Amino acid sequence: MKETAVNNEFENTIDAVNHLTEADAKTLLRLIYGFINTAMTGNGGDAVKLEVVDKVSDIYKHIPELNKLRNK
């Protein structure tokens, strides 16, 4: 059951990414790059890298909401 929910979330997120506007996609890529660059060049070590993975994951999870807001 949990595997199905994870698969559904994955498919929904991929679908939402496919519906991003070019401007939204570029903005999200810049934001993600900023987090990754900070993690790789900063002094936070593995803890910061794990935090960045969580933040990037959260960004992806919110893409469907972004599309809904844009379509209102």
**C-alpha-based Rg, rounded:** 14 Å
Rough shape?
A: flat
Terminus-to-terminus distance: 33 Å
Order of SSEs: HHHH
Q: What is the β-strand count?
A: 0
Structural category: mainly alpha
Mean pLDDT across all amino acids: 89
Q: Bin the helical content.
A: over 70%
Estimate what percentage of residues fall within beta strands.
under 5%
The low-pLDDT segments are: none
Sheet with most strands: none
Q: What is the overall number of helices?
A: 4
Write the layout of secondary structure elements.
Layout: H1 2-18, H2 22-41, H3 45-61, H4 63-70
What would you note in describing this structure?
The chain has 72 residues and is mainly alpha-helical. Helix content is 86%, strand content 0%. It has helices at 2-18, 22-41, 45-61, 63-70. It is flat, with a radius of gyration of 14 Å.
